[in-house]
């Protein structure tokens, strides 16, 4: 394995080792205006590395956050699964923490308010922090108080100085995007009340490796967490994991509940840490064959698509997602195999996918054009999408689910 000169984002170790090199790819959410389709997309190296000191899996290239998040095309509210997950979690925390009008829930990277609106609707004060101005405007319009800023330790200290301390903080699919991990967690520690809880959700490195979910890797996702790596990060800032659970969201995620030291810790934490140690997730050997399995998946899927095209079948894709961008650009899938990409988000329709410039259209195009096969790029929401597209399937359309191995449904 190649040794990287890169320093670990969590502990500063300078002997990180390469697990997987996906080459140079465009930014996964850099959708292209058709008027600019003649210009090539900027590309950046995409390498996954492992830190032998703290076990954090991460990429070693850092694109300025402003280039990725100041105007952002991903709106969580277009996923029914995410909306239900958020509503259930908010309801659970309101009951568990006995939240009311004197409480405060804060969420860095609050997106369009899809989570916080559940607290606000129950009479619990909320504050979102969202760096993408286009999304922050939508949240404000939906009645969710939102600061249009990047969350940081400095911002946390300003909020504390203004008398704001959080009973509950959420960070769903955001901590993996943060270049300054220690600064972010220091901000969380500053904002939490002594009995407050910080709930982090992020894709689980174990599910990514075991399920060959390489398309979870893109420039926005700087880190891929294990319980082992997260425990070390929180410990550094006087925080302690008090509860952890695995969820199926995004192909397999961790939901980690963390509080200032001194709060009760349940049995789930030690149990998962022991599981990871037994699996060897704190050692490089666990990750050694990942690159080979990714290459095998690429060869199998590309061969399947090319064979279907050679037999005269038409193929589209569903889900102009970040993971879809990684998959297509790494595998070289473009207009030679696919006709278009359907996506439910009106903010993506009419744009072109980064790299291969495939047109992004409304899902109704699947019925109108009835491609024989549709490559499901958002395979992490497979059951939801297959249900939504029942009419297409009843008319004879078939979906290709690419991960962990290509299957036709």
TrEMBL record:
<feature type="domain" description="C-methyltransferase">
    <location>
        <begin position="248"/>
        <end position="404"/>
    </location>
</feature>
<protein>
    <submittedName>
        <fullName>SAM-dependent methyltransferase</fullName>
    </submittedName>
</protein>
<dbReference type="InterPro" id="IPR038576">
    <property type="entry name" value="Methyltransf_Zn-bd_dom_put_sf"/>
</dbReference>
<dbReference type="Pfam" id="PF13489">
    <property type="entry name" value="Methyltransf_23"/>
</dbReference>
<keyword id="KW-0489">Methyltransferase</keyword>
<dbReference type="InterPro" id="IPR029063">
    <property type="entry name" value="SAM-dependent_MTases_sf"/>
</dbReference>
<dbReference type="GO" id="GO:0008168">
    <property type="term" value="F:methyltransferase activity"/>
</dbReference>
<dbReference type="GO" id="GO:0032259">
    <property type="term" value="P:methylation"/>
</dbReference>
<dbReference type="Pfam" id="PF08421">
    <property type="entry name" value="Methyltransf_13"/>
</dbReference>
<feature type="domain" description="Methyltransferase putative zinc binding">
    <location>
        <begin position="8"/>
        <end position="69"/>
    </location>
</feature>
<dbReference type="Pfam" id="PF08484">
    <property type="entry name" value="Methyltransf_14"/>
</dbReference>
<dbReference type="InterPro" id="IPR013630">
    <property type="entry name" value="Methyltransf_Zn-bd_dom_put"/>
</dbReference>
<keyword id="KW-0808">Transferase</keyword>
<dbReference type="InterPro" id="IPR013691">
    <property type="entry name" value="MeTrfase_14"/>
</dbReference>
